[in-house]
Amino acid sequence: MCNRIKLILLGFVGILYMSSLSADNTISLVLRDHLFIPAQLEVPANRKLRLVIDNQDMTAEEFDSFDLNREKVLFPRRKSVIYIGPLSPGEYRFFGEFSPNTAQGLIIAKESRDAS
Amino acid sequence: MKPYYKLVTGFLYLFPMVFSLASYADGMVVDKVYHPYVLPFEREVEWRMLSRKTQSGNVLAQRAGLGWAIAETVTVEGYAIGERDTEDNFDLAAYELEMRWQVVEQGRYWADWGILVELEKQHKTSAYEAAIGLLFEKEFGKLSLTMNGFVVREWGSAVENEWEGEFRAQIRYRYMSEFQPAIELYSGEDFIGVGPAVIGLYRFQGQKQLKWEIGFVTELSQSVNDHSFRLAVEYEF
């Protein structure tokens, strides 16, 4: 009985883990010279997304977005992952707290057939 | 009804039930609903005020805290707590040490989880309190549901050794950064209170930001008047 519960729990965690790592939902961004590249991204709406940000600068940055409800420190010379969504169709702004005048970006969530 | 919604509904019922199994009367339950998130490099100073008005008088409690992140997902905070009793004496009442751990990456799984551990000592008496809490948060579009469940142990020669349970919940509408209306619920120690709250955040340069929370909680389970007003201001730098 105890083993069965453990197996069920393991299976549940495994499903969660796999569903969170789906490669199709990964979007990549680069932070270089305090600029997000690309600064504008189109993503499919109503899907959970894995945003990978490669901070190529020598200093830390903090990704911040009230629209996306996310705050995350981007360590220098490191890739950071931010899980967002599912997003309703619309525009979601984000910026870097340490360079708010330059590090700015926009995510546009579109219905799947419209997203590029 | 889809099985998924049954699971969600069942969980939302179960969470408060598990943490309200034991409830006894000796303290104030209204405090703050904790979120399960920690930011590396985070440092903060915090001030909280609670004014509770009952038929026997008004009790005022204030606490000042200093916190900092000691790891990518762990933050610690120390507090000095002052209380004014019903005879208008305001004095240092207790010290508290708190540790909060963000267990999962925000948004990665169905919900976000954290753990809170607290240790409190009364200043002048032999009374201790240790608590462990499970922190939960789930987004539903622009709504965020946050729930805290605590198991509390009290001991010492000045208090009755006992186990307690507490539950706190908050539904917040992320309307705009500076103005996020919410409804809060506090339960434990023979107290069930509900009321409106407003949460706001103003951002300065870099990591510097000011957060505030204002709430008004009315006790529902007793017929007597019991209202609490809470205010929390937090400066992160």
Walkthrough of the structure:
The complex is a heterodimer of chains A (about 120) and B (about 240). With about 120 residues, chain A is an alpha+beta fold. Chain A has one domain: Immunoglobulin-like (Sandwich), CATH 2.60.40. Chain A is built from 1 helix and 9 strands, in the order H-E-E-E-E-E-E-E-E-E. Chain A is globular. The mean pLDDT of chain A is about 85. Chain B has about 240 residues and is mostly beta strands. Chain B has one domain: Beta Barrel (Porin), CATH 2.40.160.40. Chain B is about 5% helix and about 60% strand. A 12-stranded antiparallel barrel of chain B has the order 1-2-3-4-5-6-7-8-9-10-11-12. The longest helix of chain B is centred in the first third of the chain and has 16 residues, at about 5-20. The radius of gyration of chain B is 18 Å and the shape is globular. The termini of chain B are far apart. Chain B: This is Outer membrane protein beta-barrel domain-containing protein. Chain B: It comes from Pseudoalteromonas aurantia 208.
Q: What order do the helices and strands come in, and which of them pair?
A:
The complex is a heterodimer of chains A (about 120) and B (about 240).
Chain A: H1 2-20, E1 26-32, E2 35-37, E3 40-44, E4 49-55, E5 61-65, E6 70-74, E7 78-84, E8 90-96, E9 104-110
Parallel strand pairs in A: 1-4, 3-9
Antiparallel strand pairs in A: 1-2, 4-7, 5-6, 5-8, 8-9
Chain B: H1 3-18, E1 43-54, E2 57-69, E3 74-84, E4 90-102, E5 112-122, E6 128-140, E7 143-155, E8 162-173, E9 180-188, E10 191-203, E11 209-219, E12 226-236
Antiparallel strand pairs in B: 1-2, 1-12, 2-3, 3-4, 4-5, 5-6, 6-7, 7-8, 8-9, 9-10, 10-11, 11-12
pLDDT below 50 for ≥5 consecutive residues: which ranges of chain B?
Answer: 20-26
Number of strands of chain B: 12
**Contiguous helical run count of chain B:** 1
Structural class designation of chain B: mainly beta
Binned strand content of chain A: over 45%
Main β-sheet, spatial strand arrangement of chain B: 1-2-3-4-5-6-7-8-9-10-11-12
Note poorly predicted spans of chain A.
none
Largest β-sheet summary of chain A: 5 strands, mixed
Major β-sheet profile of chain B? 12 strands, antiparallel, barrel
CATH superfamily of chain A: Cupredoxins -  blue copper proteins
Number of helices of chain A: 1
Distance between the terminal alpha carbons of chain A, to the nearest Å? 49 Å
**Helical content of chain B, roughly?**
under 10%
Order of helices and strands of chain A: HEEEEEEEEE
Largest chain interface and its two residue counts? A-B, 22 and 21 residues
Structural domains of chain B: how many: 1
Give, in spatial order, the strands making up the sheet with the most strands of chain A: 3-9-8-5-6
Q: What global shape of chain B is seen?
A: globular
Give the distance, in angstroms, between the N- and C-terminal Cα atoms of chain B: 47 Å
Level-1 CATH class name of chain B: Mainly Beta
The quaternary organization reads as: heterodimer
Organism (chain B): Pseudoalteromonas aurantia 208
Protein name (chain B): Outer membrane protein beta-barrel domain-containing protein
